[in-house]
Specification:
This protein has 13 helices and 11 strands. It is of the alpha/beta class. The model has no long low-confidence stretch (mean pLDDT 93). The longest helix is centred in the N-terminal third of the chain and has 22 residues, at 91-112. The strands form 2 sheets. Strands 4, 5, 6, 7, 8, 9, 10 and 11 form an 8-stranded mixed sheet that branches. A 3-stranded antiparallel sheet has the order 1-2-3, with helices on both faces. It folds into 2 domains: 3-113 and 351-361, 2-Layer Sandwich (Enolase-like, domain 1), CATH 3.30.390; 118-340, Enolase-like C-terminal domain (TIM Barrel), CATH 3.20.20.
């Protein structure tokens, strides 16, 4: 089997007049966001898919030249070619490599008739999941936030995550208190600051919300400030999770060596795909650290299920509910806070080609 082609589809999709935001980035009204996917093809008719956008100029240009003619089962050879074969990648380039690599793992699983979680080691066939939301939005107050978090619980989640860091401490503390009181003691509560604070501010806030039994504090300070992250981690009993924007095993090595976090949020769509993610997970395991990847539960459920130190999977707002636009991959099913991993080959996702056609035919204004 040989790779014959790769296709990247990317279009800009409007985000609406009052998009949600976190503490680190405010999306301008009516702004555009990239939507799309990457697909890798072979001479035997088997293809691999990644439901995330990447620039066609990168994927169908330099990266295509690196992978066409290669055996898709030789993932290390292909990854090294993409990493070293054309230039040393910047972050945007690494994200494109990540998505090609994910599609190749999907392809490899299909070729071998095995799910990706088993190819990675098969540590477990059921993984915990948490509902991620709690964003800020103009006109959204505490009652609306509480309703949203309770919606996750009604959808079967036993852990939820909300944003902090955008408004004054006292107001954010009140938001955390309201959510904890609403979801009750049997639901784990994560809070995510999106690197909003300096170390002393993060420590002060975390101590203020300690009575509300925080499962983890995510990205309290700039993740590249390893010493600052370590300062926060040492000062608190609340576990520190961070690193969703950190790419490559070399940066993760330095973070782990600095003890800059208690839980790794390495994202396979950013850090170098499945191939690089499993290296990061192995280094974390050697230091007795769990890994709870950021975003894209479809991909990361397999990764968390595959490795022994996989902790929990992040699932976005519209799982179990009607999305504003049609999803191109069938939504995940969360039952009693868990995702069951099946024996379907590759990532096992069911691609809705009609939904893809719908997006491509839209005239966004």
């Amino acid at each position: 089997m040989k790779i014959t082609d790769v296709r990247a589809v990317q279009i800009d999709v409007p985000q609406g007049p009052t998009p949600s935001h976190d503490a680190g980035y405010v999306v301008p009204p009516n702004s555009l966001a990239a939507w799309g996917y990457v697909e890798v093809f072979t001479d035997e008719g088997v293809s691999g898919f990644c439901p995330a956008a990447a620039p066609p100029t990168l994927v169908e240009g330099p990266l295509k030249r690196m992978i066409v003619g290669q055996n898709p089962l030789e993932v290390e050879r292909i990854w090294t070619a993409m990493w070293q074969g054309w230039r040393h990648p910047k972050m945007d380039d690494l994200m494109a490599i990540s998505k090609v690599d994910i599609a190749i793992w999907d392809l490899a699983g299909k070729a071998l008739g095995q799910p990706v979680w088993r190819l990675l080691g098969g540590a477990r066939n059921r993984v915990r999941a948490y509902g991620a939301g709690g964003m800020y939005r103009r006109g959204k107050g505490v009652p609306e936030l509480v309703e949203e978090m309770l919606g996750f619980v009604e959808d079967g989640f036993r852990a939820v995550k909300m944003k902090v860091g955008w408004i004054p401490f006292d107001e954010d503390i009140a938001r955390v208190r309201a959510v904890r009181e609403a979801v009750g003691p049997g639901v784990d509560l994560m809070i995510d600051a999106n690197h909003a604070w300096l170390p002393h501010e993060a420590i002060r806030f975390a101590r203020a919300v300690e009575p509300y039994r925080i499962y983890w504090l995510e990205e309290p300070v700039d993740p590249w400030d390893h010493r600052g992250c370590a300062e926060v981690a040492r000062a608190l009993d609340v576990p520190i999770a961070t690193g969703e924007n950190v790419g490559s095993r070399y940066l993760w090595r330095d973070m782990v060596d600095a003890r800059a976090c208690d839980i790794l949020n390495a994202d396979a769509l950013y850090c170098g795909g499945v191939t690089e993610w499993r290296r990061i997970a192995a280094y974390a395991a050697a230091h007795s650290l769990p890994i709870a990847p950021h975003g894209n539960g479809h991909v990361h459920a397999h990764l968390v299920g595959g490795v022994p130190n996989g902790l929990i999977v992040e699932v976005g707002l519209y799982q179990g509910r009607r999305p504003e636009r049609p999803p191109i991959v069938e939504p995940l099913r969360v039952t009693d806070g868990q995702i069951d991993l099946t024996d379907e080959p590759g990532f096992g996702w069911r691609i809705d080609r009609a939904a893809i056609d719908w997006y491509l035919k839209q005239t966004w204004s």
